[in-house]
UniProtKB/TrEMBL annotation, chain A:
It comes from the Bacteria. This is Spermidine/putrescine transport system substrate-binding protein. Residues 1-23 form the signal peptide. It holds the Pfam family SBP_bac_8. InterPro entries: SBP (IPR006059), Sperm_putr-bd (IPR001188). GO terms for biological process: polyamine transport. Its main location: periplasm. GO terms for molecular function: polyamine binding. It is found in: Periplasm. Keywords: Periplasm, Signal, Transport.
From TrEMBL, chain B:
Keywords: Cell membrane, Membrane, Transmembrane, Transmembrane helix, Transport. Belongs to the binding-protein-dependent transport system permease family. CysTW subfamily. This is Spermidine/putrescine transport system permease protein. The lineage of its organism: Bacteria, Pseudomonadati, Pseudomonadota, Alphaproteobacteria, Hyphomicrobiales. It is a multi-pass membrane protein.
């Protein structure tokens, strides 16, 4: 497209005017808590590389990289299911050089699974960093019998529940209704069938919802104040609230918690690959990974790091995840390109209903 | 010594350059790019072709024009409310207050704008939420028996919008009313006019350019607002800018988002044009 070329030429001209970024500054596009200042300081002391952190979420990371054609950042951390589709559509990542990564630092099963899910045209684009789940955060004193996503629609809790109006909610409700959306990922017609059932449920459930939450702080605030007694939310938020109020617990739902793994990917326009690989190998060391767990609240794919994690957090994790609940986690498979527009239309209709 | 025509022309060009660069680089070129993008259809992975599908979606899928209609109607209502609340305030500041109290009252209108819109909106959230100040005060006074939720509804959006836009209505109104000579009002009374007829026949016609320019600004600000509806409206926060944001950021559907953006531009211009026609004003008179 002509105007794109023109805009690109213009952008190049503008970039030429500003001083070039130092090659040893790592521009990291990540989530809150994944790059705490103490880790950055240690990294700087050891390698001399500066780290410039930009906080974001999956959709914004992809949109930012798409807007610049994959430049502007040297390392990004989208979830493992959001690599295949965007790579096929927009080509915003570059293949990883696994030679430069110390594989012994990773939990082998998690490393292998992520490699499989992030392989595009025979090349690997992502390796795992932090994993966690979406489940139910419940104030057990006020809502004793919520143990699956569908229970959020129980009229007994009208006006006191919350969830996000995003794709994880669609998937979670589908599982909770006894459907298997992941099995239908490859079959558009079947997937649309599942989506329409979920849409009907979410429309019906809307009256029950206090508000659709947007950010992690928003939902913790709502639960802490008691305005919301049950919500679909991230495990970390639930554990943090549990430390303040033992009645509030993170529960792995009966139909399975939704498991995500945030990865390391190198954007196609990344300019500091050496620093990026150095950062990956640095933060995966067990003692550093434990520091990141302390800051992010989630466990990492670092081999042996969970031994070093704070006992209180470990206890909360074990209370939420007995062995069978871990086996029951629904791990997100890669999202095929184009699926998001189907889901988007459903979410818009639910919002407007 | 007078400057030669060539030097004068260069001076003029240099003076205009920042404005032209600003308009060209930040307004015209992005809009042309958006326009082209909006006429692009996505047919498959990395496959695009020119077409009208994005505009068709807006008119065929009821969700989107419903959202637009709702946004436009709520914005018009917010504009009217701002005018009704702002007019007496502006009249008091322009005509009744004198000296330091005039400056002080004007400053009071300005103070909320010293903090960002986000902070102002969070302020309203703290006041209106179920465990918030208003709910607590009502319970303490015994007016309600349990906590009341005042947030996450259209009324909360309206409060936020009116609060956010008040200054932009009051300032043009004060300017317009300031220029009205008090002797006209006195003459009106001398000729036996009532307060109401003087307001209708003298004050409002004189203030009309201020009313119209204030209304245009408030309407556009409300229509283009993103934060207030999203934060205060909660699950019912359907605002057209929100739909545009969603298309661009969470759906990666820039083509659709660009079409919505263009439609917002065209339809809102249309509404402003209609408003000018209905009130018998012209843009040049309002601005000039």
């Amino acid at each position: 497209m002509k105007s794109r070329t023109f805009a690109l030429a213009l952008a190049t001209a503008l970039v030429a005017l500003v001083p070039q970024a130092q090659a040893d500054t790592l521009r990291l596009l990540t989530w809150g808590g994944y790059a705490p200042q103490n880790v950055i300081d240690l990294f700087k002391a050891e390698t001399g590389h500066d780290v410039e952190v930009t906080l974001s979420n999956n959709e914004e990371m992809i949109s930012k990289l798409r807007a610049t054609g994959g430049s502007g950042f040297d390392l990004a951390q989208p979830s493992q299911d959001r690599i295949l589709g965007p790579q096929l559509e927009f080509g915003i990542y570059k293949p990883l050089d696994l030679e430069k990564i110390d594989a012994s630092l990773f939990i082998p099963s998690m490393l292998e699974a992520t490699k499989v899910n992030t392989t595009v045209d025979g090349q690997i684009y992502g390796i795992p960093h932090i994993w966690g789940t979406d489940g139910l955060v419940v104030n057990t004193a006020a809502a004793p019998d919520v143990d699956d996503y569908i229970d959020l629609c129980d009229p007994a809790y009208a006006g006191k529940v919350s969830y996000r109006l995003r794709r994880p909610t669609l998937i979670a409700f589908a599982f909770s209704m006894g459907l298997d959306p992941f099995a239908a990922y490859g079959d558009t017609a079947a997937y649309e069938g599942i989506l329409s059932q979920v849409e009907a449920k979410l429309r019906e459930c809307k009256a029950n919802v206090k508000t659709y939450w947007g950010g992690g702080d928003e939902i913790t605030g709502l639960i802490r104040s008691g305005e919301v007694v049950a919500a679909m939310a991230w495990d970390t938020g639930g554990w943090a609230l549990n430390a303040e109020n033992p009645d509030i617990r993170f529960i792995a739902p009966a139909s399975g918690a939704m498991g995500w793994i945030d990865t390391f990917v190198i954007p196609s326009g990344g300019e500091a690959d050496e620093a990026a690989y150095a950062w990956i190998n640095f933060v995966m060391r067990p003692e550093i990974a434990a520091m990141i767990t302390a800051s992010a609240g989630n466990f990492t794919a670092s081999q042996g790091a969970d031994e070093l994690v704070d006992e209180a957090l470990k206890a909360r994790y074990q209370a939420s995840f007995p062995a069978e609940a871990v086996d029951n986690i629904n791990w997100y498979p890669p999202v095929p390109a184009g699926l998001e527009s189907l889901e988007g239309a459903v979410l818009d209709r639910v919002n407007a209903s | 010594m007078t400057a030669s025509p060539a030097i004068r022309r260069i001076t003029l060009a240099l003076l205009l350059a920042p404005l032209m660069l600003w308009l060209g680089l930040l307004v015209v070129i992005p809009h042309i790019d958006m326009l082209l993008l909006s006429f692009t259809e996505k047919t498959g992975v990395r496959q695009y072709q020119p077409g009208l599908a994005n505009y068709r979606t807006f008119f065929v899928e009821p969700v989107y024009w419903t959202i637009f209609l709702r946004t436009a109607l709520m914005s018009i209502l917010a504009t009217l409310l701002t005018l009704v609340i702002g007019f007496p305030v502006a009249y008091f500041i322009a005509k009744l207050a004198r000296g330091r109290s005039k400056a002080f009252l004007f400053l009071l209108c300005l103070v909320p704008f010293w903090v960002s819109e986000l902070v102002r909106t969070f302020g309203w959230m703290i006041l209106l939420r179920e465990t918030g100040l208003v709910s607590g005060a009502l319970q303490a006074l015994g007016l309600v028996s349990g906590p009341v939720e005042l947030l996450y509804n259209d009324a909360a959006i309206m409060v936020g919008l009116v609060y956010t836009s008040m200054l932009f209505m009051v300032v043009p109104l004060i300017t317009a009313l300031d220029s009205l000579d008090d002797s006209f009002i006195e003459a009106g009374y001398d000729l036996g006019g009532s307060g109401w007829s003087i307001l209708r026949e003298i004050v409002i016609p004189h203030a009309m350019p201020g009313i119209v320019s204030g209304s245009i600004v408030v309407f556009m600000l409300s229509l283009g607002n993103y934060l207030t509806p999203v934060l205060l409206g909660g699950k019912d926060s359907l605002w057209f800018t929100g739909a545009i944001y969603t298309q661009f950021i969470t759906r990666f559907n820039w083509e659709q988002g660009a079409a919505f953006g263009m439609l917002l531009l065209v339809l809102s211009s249309l509404i402003v044009w209609l408003g000018l026609k209905l009130s018998g004003q012209t843009l040049s008179r309002t601005v000039g």
